Amino acid sequence: MSIENNSSDKPWAGRFTEPTDAFVEAFTSSVGFDKRLYKHDIDGSLAHARMLTHVGVLTADECEAIVTGLEEVRADIEGGAFDWSVALEDVHMNIEAKLTDKIGIAGKKLHTGRSRNDQVATDIRLYLRDEIDLIATEIKRLQTGLLDLAEREADAILPGFTHLQVAQPVVFGHHMMAWFEMLKRDHSRLMDCRKRVNVMPLGAAALAGTSYPIDREFSAKLLGFDGVCENSLDAVSDRDFAIEFCAFAATLLMHLSRFSEELVIWASAQFDFVELPDRFCTGSSIMPQKKNPDVPELVRGKTGRVFGSLMSLLTLMKGQPLAYNKDNQEDKEPLFDSIDTVRGSLRVFADMVPAIEVKRDNMERAALSGFSTATDLADYLVRNGVAFRDAHEVVGKAVRFGVETNKDLAEMSFEELSQFSPEIKQDVFEVLTLQGSVAARDHIGGTAPSQVRAAVKRARDNV
Ligand code: ARG
Q1: Pick the catalytic residue: 2, 163, 211, 285?
Q2: Buried b (16+ CB within 10 A) or exposed e, 59-96
């Protein structure tokens, strides 16, 4: 056992007597995926160095050397001139080693009063905070697209469905505003998550805090954190903020997946309610007639991995004793994958939605079949003094007659309709039109075109 056997390039090599097994080195390394944290790692280190200088642990000269060195490292990474080393395990040790190569002894002082445990927890939070802000902007862009589409199609009638059976007519704008509302809640979930992400672990060190006279508020301010984690054990070990983000992501993708499902159905030859622009579709290598709605299908498909990431992180946490455990290195890939998937899905939807072409005639034709105004006939009878349950029965019989004779309610003659109730008068046809049906639902949350336009206006004031 000699000092030569140490893996001397490793910052922690001092107490080891033989090099790390080659496969173990690769197996335990995270640099392949955590190098994407480089910017936030450098920002965190800059703040840490400035704080150490502020409290007198580093000299101004040392601080200057560290700042200059870290900025050079940043430039090397961004210029593609940085050799990431698996032997150096992760992004943190890679950057620190490179800094020390560049500036010597001052580089070795950067890690004073800090551990990779509080460092990595800080990096992830800084990184996630930036991603949250980008995602929030993208949600708003999609919402704006939905508002434009809703306004444009505020009086385009289509059948509304329950059980995927024709239920009642609605307007397309109203349907789009339903998606808008879901995204509004997703956005608010994201902003709520951001509050808990934006708290600083740095200063917790390995788990118990540090014996140096650190000023955590000072570094928190430099890094734009709202505050510091109050307990060092909690700070280095919990990843509940990442779980919250993944729960947000899972809910958002669940919504986008339902939206996708509707677009796929609506773009089919059987429905033919919408046309998706060619640039968002692909063809088939064997069937020349095909135009496939790949984008919504893929978003629907990607929902699975986002649900999976949430489950991964929950499971990752559930068995860990306090404080930091290496298990936590596994937090990154599910989190990164969720971020990438959310960003990609939002981007493609925000690009596609304003370009959706609505086939008004086909939608209206579909709304005219399937007895979509049956509830309107029942409501008409109620207004003429019939109890709702009796009215329901009368209309049910009229519908059965319609099924047998292959006629929708509005296609029946007055003689045919009035045989079901003496309360059916000549004015009945006014309520059997699609336009009359939607216009009658004239209250907040209803499908009347005027209400949809008002909802769009209210929403624009808030987006
Ligand atoms: N790569 C590690 C991670 O992602 C950094 C922290 C490692 N800490 C330690 N004591 N091994 O969690």
Answers
A1: 163
A2: eeebbebbbebbeebbebbeeeebebeebbbbbbbbbb
